[in-house]
Recover the amino acids of this structure.
């Protein structure tokens, strides 16, 4: 069981980051964003396109070559791309919908359409092949009581640092406070002079960048594929729900728990030979939580039925 | 009877899309048309089931694929079938009709199970729960290889349905390049659609149907009038799930093999697209939606092959999904009531 703990921590940090991003967006805009996975995949696919060697031509039906930029610069550019994509979605899709006062069920269905559209656009442009970043292979080492490669260990540390920074950003900066104010009460925050349109735009950008970073980490740890976001989307929902919808700290803890549970459950005896069913464990936990403690571990009680 | 302009428009659009199939395929349009009508029948039947959930009762069900899956698996496991790569044909000896009925009942019971969260949860949470439950079903089905054949699926079950095939189908298809087996499935799906619609037409105007729609409009009012809103929701879930189960059985027979991959969330989203296109809450809407939807789908591949010269098969299939995504978005933004739905009858905001 413990040999899976390292993998669990790595999956946990990815799901935790993505869950915080999803939860932030849901808290401020009340959008259940099924296209969240596609923003995650965007981060990884952009990094792939920026960083891989220009010798190969495999993007958009083998017509474009990757750019061959250095890896750190590629990550930075990809995060900017994700932020721009988030801003684009808000300005050209979700803001007009909000102004039209389209109901939230309609918006949910729109995000599902968006998710299918963007995901299969990736399939067209990035093809169905599984690819990886231009990074050297590394040997696993033992840290405390789990094994992972030095790079993955750095990813884990970087992820934890990012989560702390997000927490500090939400707690201490003016804009972070404004985001929480809009989340808690849109009307009251407007009365206090907070421009909710600007805050929602900032939320979209920061949420998309965080999700994109989670995708890049996923690409470093595992690989890049066109549907990588949709594969873990339900796990992200599970993490968000487990921690308590709309609470950032809860989403982080919930994401970690889900990631570790999914990986550790592989080592359980009754799961032997049922490797495929590991995601089912997380989804079952989510359903049970929604039914019996819908506010999650850290959420506050509000009317949800 | 008052002339309904929406209905005329829907019929016109359906005719145009069928006409386009003939124009775009000068060689062998019949084969493509038969294929289209078969898929349209099966998916349309499933969309009618979904319409009971969302259109009539306002339940946000995103696990529809699992109802189809349960119906298909239960029925086919009860009739002679072979599971896995080198599976032998096994059977329970039940007559086909009985197996079909048990399959539909199983789907309805799974609907009851999935309906239980609906008692407690608000719309968007219900959407997450249902899609997760459908994924659990699919993952477990894929995992229990001894029963479902795992990724290899179940085969050799078609005879159970095909032995009832009416001989006029074989005679009629003599001159066409189209499998009589598939035509039989297609014909059955349309027969079932007509039977289901006749049943639903009665239910729709019955006190029960009115109470169901009242649940969608104002649950508290339903309670105040002494109706059991919870039980109504569960009944709606069971009825729609049973219809979906029947569609799932037909889908399996149409492919001739049963794999868990058939029941990915995309299947649910297809059915949603058909329901929204046809008209949420409308009785006959899903039929028109389904035919138009499949006409678009079956022509996409040809158009895509023209645009993208060296795309592979999977990428060509990607084009149709891109279109499905755009279709769902545009319909939901600009015409959420679809072709035949009534805007005032549409639930777009959680209560």
């Amino acid at each position: 069981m413990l040999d899976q703990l390292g993998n669990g921590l790595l999956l946990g940090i990815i799901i935790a980051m993505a869950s915080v991003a999803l939860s932030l967006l849901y808290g401020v805009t009340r959008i259940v964003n099924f296209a969240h996975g596609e923003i995650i995949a965007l981060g990884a696919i952009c990094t792939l396109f920026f960083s891989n060697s220009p010798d190969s031509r495999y993007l958009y039906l083998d017509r474009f070559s990757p750019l061959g930029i250095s890896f750190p610069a590629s990550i930075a550019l990809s995060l900017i791309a994700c932020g721009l994509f988030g801003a684009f979605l808000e300005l050209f899709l979700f803001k007009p919908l909000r102004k039209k006062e389209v109901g939230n069920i309609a918006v949910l269905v729109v995000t599902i359409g968006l998710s299918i559209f963007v995901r299969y656009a990736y399939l067209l442009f990035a093809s169905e092949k599984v690819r990886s970043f231009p990074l050297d292979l590394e040997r696993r080492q033992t840290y405390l009581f789990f094994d992972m490669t030095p790079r993955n260990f750095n990813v884990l540390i970087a992820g934890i640092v990012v989560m702390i920074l997000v927490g500090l950003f939400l707690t201490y900066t003016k804009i972070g406070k404004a985001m929480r104010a809009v989340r808690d009460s849109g009307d009251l925050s407007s009365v206090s002079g907070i421009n909710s349109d600007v805050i929602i735009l900032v939320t979209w950008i920061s949420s998309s960048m965080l999700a994109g970073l989670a995708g890049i980490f996923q690409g470093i740890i595992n690989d890049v594929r066109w549907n990588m976001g949709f594969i873990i989307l339900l796990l992200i929902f599970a993490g968000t729900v487990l921690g308590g919808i709309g609470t950032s700290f809860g989403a982080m803890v919930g994401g970690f728990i889900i990631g570790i549970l999914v990986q550790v459950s592989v080592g359980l005896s009754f799961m032997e030979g049922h490797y495929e069913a590991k995601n089912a464990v997380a989804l079952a936990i989510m359903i049970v939580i929604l039914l019996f403690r819908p506010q999650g571990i850290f959420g506050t009680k509000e009317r949800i039925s | 009877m008052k002339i309904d302009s929406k209905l005329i428009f829907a019929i016109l659009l359906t005719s145009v899309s069928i006409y386009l199939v003939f124009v775009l395929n000068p060689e062998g349009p019949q084969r493509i048309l038969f294929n289209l009508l078969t898929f349209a029948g099966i998916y349309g039947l499933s969309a009618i089931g979904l319409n009971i959930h969302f259109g009539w009762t306002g339940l946000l069900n995103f696990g529809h694929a699992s109802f189809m899956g349960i119906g298909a698996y239960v029925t086919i496991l009860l009739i002679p079938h072979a599971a896995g790569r080198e599976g032998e044909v096994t059977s329970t000896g039940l007559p086909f009709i009985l197996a079909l009925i048990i399959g539909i009942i199983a789907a309805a019971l799974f609907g009851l199970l999935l309906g239980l969260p609906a008692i407690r949860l608000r719309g968007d949470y219900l959407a997450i729960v249902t899609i997760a439950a459908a994924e659990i079903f699919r993952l477990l089905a894929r995992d229990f290889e001894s029963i479902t054949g795992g990724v290899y699926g179940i085969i050799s079950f078609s005879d159970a349905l095909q032995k009832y095939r009416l001989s006029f189908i074989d005679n009629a298809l003599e001159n066409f390049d189209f499998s009589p087996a598939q035509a039989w499935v297609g014909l059955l799906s349309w027969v079932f659609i007509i039977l289901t619609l006749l049943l639903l037409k009665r239910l729709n105007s019955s006190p029960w149907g009115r109470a169901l729609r009242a649940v969608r409009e104002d649950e508290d009012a339903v309670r105040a009038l002494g109706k059991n809103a919870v039980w109504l929701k569960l009944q709606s879930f069971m009825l729609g799930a049973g219809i979906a189960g029947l569609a799932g059985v037909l889908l399996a027979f149409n492919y001739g093999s049963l794999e868990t991959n058939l029941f990915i969330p995309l299947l649910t989203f297809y059915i949603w697209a058909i329901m929204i296109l046809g008209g949420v809450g409308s009785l006959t809407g899903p039929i028109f939606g389904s035919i138009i939807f499949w006409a678009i789908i079956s022509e996409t591949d040809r158009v895509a092959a023209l645009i993208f010269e060296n795309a592979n098969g999977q990428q060509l299939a990607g084009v149709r999904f891109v279109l499905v995504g755009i279709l769902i978005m545009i319909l939901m933004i600009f015409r959420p009531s679809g072709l035949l739905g009534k805007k005032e009858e549409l639930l777009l905001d959680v209560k």
Chain B has one domain: 5-345. Residues 5-345 of chain B form a domain with the ABC transporter involved in vitamin B12 uptake, BtuC fold (CATH 1.10.3470). The first strand of chain B starts at residue 81 and ends at 83. Strands of chain B lie at 81-83, 89-90, 154-155.
